[in-house]
Amino acid sequence: MRASHDRFVSENGTEVDVDFAADGSEVFDLWRLRCHGLSLPESLEVTDQDLQSAVRSMQPLLTGVRPGWFSVAT
Questions:
Q1: pLDDT of residue 1
Q2: H or E stretch at 34
Q3: Is it true that the peptide bond before 67 is cis, omega within 30 degrees of 0?
Q4: For 14, phi and psi rounded to 5 degrees?
Q5: How far apart are the C-alpha atoms of 49 and 59, rounded to whole Å?
Q6: What digits encode the pLDDT tens for the residues 14-45?
Q7: In the chain, at which residue ranges do the beta strands (DSSP E only) sit?
Q8: How far apart are CA 5 and CA 66, in angstroms?
């Protein structure tokens, strides 16, 4: 069974899309990060490698929950 998800859009068009794991925690993947970057007022186009590097640089603030999926550490 697939987890539910929510997509939030601010007044300036910036998007944040998250899925919810079975325990209710918010999780996201590189595709969602890319969509967020593209929705910024000054759009950011990045590669998967750039995104993976950014996620690694944010550990331990972010934690891997399954391959390719991340959550904010609690």
A1: 39
A2: helix 30-39
A3: no
A4: -65, 130
A5: 16
A6: 888 888 888 888 899 999 989 989 998 998 88
A7: 5-9, 15-20, 26-29, 62-66, 69-72
A8: 16
